[in-house]
Amino acid sequence: MLPDMKIVEEIEGSGGLGGLARMTEVIAALEHRRTELIEQLRSQRLASWEEIGQACGMTRQGASRRWSKQSQAASFGDAAAAYQRGRPSYPVSAVDWLVPGTAKSVLDLGAGTGKLTSLLAARELAVTAVEPLAAMREELVAAVPSADVRDGSAEAIPLDAGAVDAVVVAQAWHWFDPAVALPEIARVLTPGGTLGLVWNIRDHTVPWVAELDRVLHRHARQEIDSAPPIGTPFRAVERLEIRWEHALTRTELLDMVASRSYVITMPAADRDELMHQVTELLDSHLDLRGRKNLTMPYVTRCTRAHL
Ligand SMILES: C[S@@+](CC[C@H](N)C(=O)[O-])C[C@H]1O[C@@H](n2cnc3c(N)ncnc32)[C@H](O)[C@@H]1O
Q1: Residues 84, 64: one domain?
Q2: Do 152 and 34 belong together in one domain?
Q3: Residue 304: helix, strand or coil by DSSP?
Q4: Rounded CA separation 258/230 (Å)
């Protein structure tokens, strides 16, 4: 439902800088009130993060990251090393598709430990990486020394207007507040620039992967929309799926599980039980037992849009 335009017009008055200043004040007051309302809904257990996210046009993860005192997104920092060891990279063909060949500069937003950043840095591109967590940035600087690594977030990008030809977001869009992040991304892009989103999704059509996911989801369910809507000022939204396999050792698979945000934030006893169940699966499943080296099948989902 659109807000009553009469109220908006009243705030704006005769427009100009005065109108802009009044609007800014009202937005700040509304944002403050929104936070209070969310705190009230949570403390009285009147709404879940899922429902609050829906009401705010965000995902559950995005809403809990923004307003929860015990932010799950912040939890990545606690497992940065396991993240770097256990998470897969991305297929080169995804990078080819997400970053136009004509681009000279690219921003990796929510860059984490630099899984995608290192693929970007291997090209003729000026690479900036923005990441809010210090522990992730430490891994990132070590993994990709040539990148310009900065503290910041999707909602407040530390770059000038029109600074980059392309923005890519790997496995992180669901943490952002799209209503704030989209205009912010548009601001730092050159006219005609591109926004690319990518997620590696485990291929559940393979029986042992389905079994692994059953074990993981017994403890927590993480729903991610890997083909999210991208609104104005972006247009010409396109999607691509790439199937591939990631070779990893048994230990790296355990690191991959341990680096999931919902696993990091679990009570220690639940986490121990979950890790025990995954180990049991590795020891007992016909396709896995006795194997040190494994291949995890992935479907990489990509979205691309133009400014
Ligand atoms: C699942 S990790 C993905 C990291 C990296 N892009 C990759 O592909 O491995 C999600 C990352 O998003 C970051 N993040 C969470 N909220 C963010 C926000 N609002 N703006 C920018 N980054 C954010 C987290 O700190 C974390 O490093």
Answers
A1: no
A2: no
A3: strand
A4: 31
* Measured distance CA(177)–CA(290) in Å, rounded: 44
What's the CA-to-centroid distance between 305 and ligand 1, angstroms? 20
Q: Are residues 52 and 135 in the same domain?
A: no
d(CA 246, CA 112): 19
For the chain, what's the residue count? 307
Ligand 1 in contact with 244 (CB < 6 A)? no
- Number of domains forming the structure of the chain: 2
Cβ-contact 151, 131 below 8 angstroms: yes
- Cβ(58) – ligand 1 distance below 6 Å: no
Is 132 touching ligand 1 by the criterion CB < 6 Å? yes
pLDDT in tens, 257-302: 888 877 887 778 888 888 999 999 999 999 999 898 999 999 999 9
Measured between alpha carbons, how far is 49 from 61 in angstroms, rounded to an integer? Answer: 8
The domain of 84 spans 77-306
pLDDT tens digits, 148-194: 999 999 999 999 999 999 999 999 999 899 989 999 999 999 999 99
Claim to verify: residue 143 and residue 283 sit in the same structural domain: yes
DSSP code per residue over 14-33: T-HHHHHHHHHHHHHHHHHH
Q: If you compute the radius of gyration of the chain from its CA atoms, what whole number of angstroms results?
A: 21
Note whether 64 and 71 are within 8 A (CB).
Answer: yes
